[in-house]
Write a structure and sequence with these properties.
The chain is of the alpha/beta class and 486 residues long. It has a domain of 259 residues: 3-Layer(aba) Sandwich (Rossmann fold). It has 18 helices and eleven strands. A nine-stranded mixed sheet has the order 1-2-4-3-5-6-9-10-11, sandwiched between helices. Strands 7-8 form a two-stranded antiparallel sheet.
């Protein structure tokens, strides 16, 4: 590929270049205005912010540039180095990632400079926005050819809008370029090596960085591991079955609280309540808080609500299903959190994030162009995955994307070191991914959290054993001799 030569040149950075770029970084306060809530929070935490320029196209290092925005909270104690944090997504902003996960980050911040970084074309880093009227991807294909046809039209519209609004840069939106940006950040910070903490998609970004820049990473934690062999537009295909299992587990939890939620005295009865809602939206939309919920949206609500087995999220999911069941009899007013979720999904508010997410995934791996491929896939799995196949296996905007990926997907095969953190019943990045990534990164180890139904563990799940083991690795730099579990 034509970018390989540029990559080789980039990998030859000298110490002189590092010093020059380091001195060029101008740290300043983070708040852009008095109303900039993120910037104000960063300033309050003692952060500094800065920008660096990187090539749009790494095959033309002297060509046009874009701006990357980063933050830094300096280590409070005996400093080990700089830890770059990526919140995942893809397309997730991470400028203020150091402020997330308050149960662990203050401890980590004793020994590390905590670096938040908005990836290219995200947040403050020269963002793209396809001007989407609502969060149209992922959007479910529904139960009939007609409903699937509506989904196909939605995805084609996303691709058209992105072509119109961001077509000039779409070929440069991909994980390999983001990994190259990450190494420019390392140089700008004046670090011989950087440490890295990546969640979900961030585990894939970290894996690509390890592959492209061997020897440049110190301590690496990859939480919620993505399978590097299958990452791309169809990355959700394998998660339908584990989400069905998580739905059943939630139903069992709800049975024990039937006096509170009234959804059923047995697991079968609770799932029957769910199925009533699914059958209803085949022919008539639900009216909730001034919004209409139909076949395209309903599976998304279940997908985002049944992804955490702790009591509070499960209770929130039960209230959601309560509301949906009540809406079978007519319009209802939802609780504030559901109203906020619907407002967010069904408005342009998520357009920048969905735009970047779509562009990154479509830029990393090509997708089948024939809509019938996805319809057949949904049909083949509908009986085994009745609540999720229509969303995890449906078409994406990548089927209509105007540019093909500029490089082949990165083959991860190295002997770098990393700690891979995986929940046994992760509903987003399935547990077998950990074994695939363990094999691909030869020096890695896996830390498994048994019986956990949660995506994202370190500092997010409240498992003291897992948190302690990750912090121990980050502080000592020594991976366990064997895989571990909590």
């Amino acid at each position: 590929m034509r970018l390989l030569l540029a990559l080789a040149l980039l990998g030859a950075s000298t110490s002189t270049t590092a010093v020059a770029q380091t001195t060029a970084v101008q740290w300043h306060q983070c708040a852009l205005t008095a109303d900039d809530a993120e910037g104000v929070a960063l300033d309050k935490a003692g952060a500094q912010c800065a920008e660096i320029e990187v090539p749009v196209d790494y095959s033309r290092p002297g060509g046009p540039t874009i701006t990357l925005a980063m933050s830094r909270i300096k280590a409070k104690g005996n400093r080990i180095g700089a830890l770059v944090i990526n919140n995942g997504g893809p397309g997730g902003a991470s400028l203020s990632a150091a402020l997330d996960r308050p149960d662990v980050m203050p401890t980590v911040g004793q020994r590390y400079d905590l670096i938040g970084l908005d990836p290219r074309f995200v947040g403050r880093s020269t963002p793209i926005d396809c001007k989407l009227p609502f969060a149209g991807w992922p959007w479910a294909g529904g139960s009939t050819r007609a409903s699937y046809g509506r989904d196909v039209a939605v995805q084609a519209d996303v691709a058209r809008r992105c072509t119109r609004e961001a077509g000039s840069v779409l070929q440069y939106v991909n994980t390999r370029n983001t990994a190259r940006d990450l190494d420019r950040v390392r140089v700008a910070l004046g670090e011989r090596k950087i440490s890295y903490l990546g969640y979900s998609y961030g585990s894939y970004l970290g894996s690509v960085y390890l592959q492209l820049f061997p020897g440049r990473a110190d301590r690496v934690v990859l939480d919620g591991p993505v399978n590097p062999l299958t990452y791309g537009p169809q990355l959700l295909e394998p998660v339908g079955s584990v989400n069905e299992d998580n739905l059943r587990a939630w139903a069992s939890w709800t049975v024990a609280r039937n006096s509170t939620y009234g959804l059923g005295a047995t697991t079968r009865e609770v799932l029957a309540s769910v199925d009533r809602v699914y059958r209803h939206v085949r022919t008539r939309e639900l009216e909730i808080g001034g919004h209409k919920v139909g076949e395209g949206l309903l599976p998304m609500l279940f997908f985002v609500s049944m992804n955490d087995d702790r009591d509070v999220p499960r209770a929130d999911a039960a209230v959601l299903v309560q509301t949906l069941v009540k809406a079978l009899d007519g319009p209802v007013e939802p609780r504030a959190d559901l109203a906020e979720l619907l407002d967010l999904i069904l408005s342009p508010a998520m357009s920048p994030m969905i735009s970047a997410q779509t562009a990154i995934i479509c830029g990393d791996r090509a997708a089948p162009r024939d809509p019938q491929v996805y319809w057949r896939n949904i049909q083949a799995h509908r009986s085994a995955e009745p609540h999720y196949a229509s969303i995890t296996r449906t078409i994406s905007p990548c089927a209509f994307w105007p540019v093909r990926p500029q490089e082949a997907p990165t083959r991860i095969a190295n002997n770098e070191k990393a700690l891979i953190v995986a929940a046994e019943f992760d509903p987003r990045t399935i547990y077998p991914n950990a074994a695939v990534l363990r094999k691909a990164i030869g020096g890695s180890r896996v830390l498994t959290v048994r019986n956990a139904r949660k995506h994202g563990v370190f500092g997010e799940y409240g498992n003291a054993c897992a948190d302690q083991k990750v912090v121990s690795y980050l502080f000592s730099g020594t991976l366990p001799a064997t895989d571990l579990s909590c």
